Amino acid sequence: MKNAGQIEKYLEVLAGKLADQGDGQQYMLALKIAAYRRKDRVDCLVLLHRLGITTREETQDILDTFLSEQEQRIWDVDQKLKRLFR
User: How does pLDDT run across 41-57, given as a tens digit for each residue?
Assistant: First the structure.
């Protein structure tokens, strides 16, 4: 597993590439939660920290911005949020 420093550097590069799509870090968080593989958990936690997000409700607001209700149902986002905020 990558260490936290490597993850931070990776996320900075990726967020920079996504900056032209609105708030890149929020967009990246929405996609990471939608995919939510085991390896995405640490990335999600780092992004939540960097964005200053502490609640499931704040996270849901971001998801609502980037993913439709149908997409959230297809990706089973509710279950993924439960795992992320346990």
Answer: 999 999 999 899 999 99
List, in order, residues 6 or more apart from 51 with CB less than 8 Å away.
25, 26, 29, 62
Model pTM?
0.74
Decide: 65 and 30 in contact? Cβ < 8 Å: yes
Q: What is the DSSP string of 12-36?
A: HHHHHHHGGGSSHHHHHHHHHHHH-
Residue type, 13: V
Contacts for 8 with CB less than 8 Å, ≥ 6 apart: 46
The structure tokens listed for 39 are 């390896």
Asked if 26 and 66 touch (Cβ cutoff 8 Å), the reply is yes
Alpha carbon 11 to chain centroid distance? 11
- C-alpha to C-alpha distance for 50 and 56, rounded to whole angstroms: 15
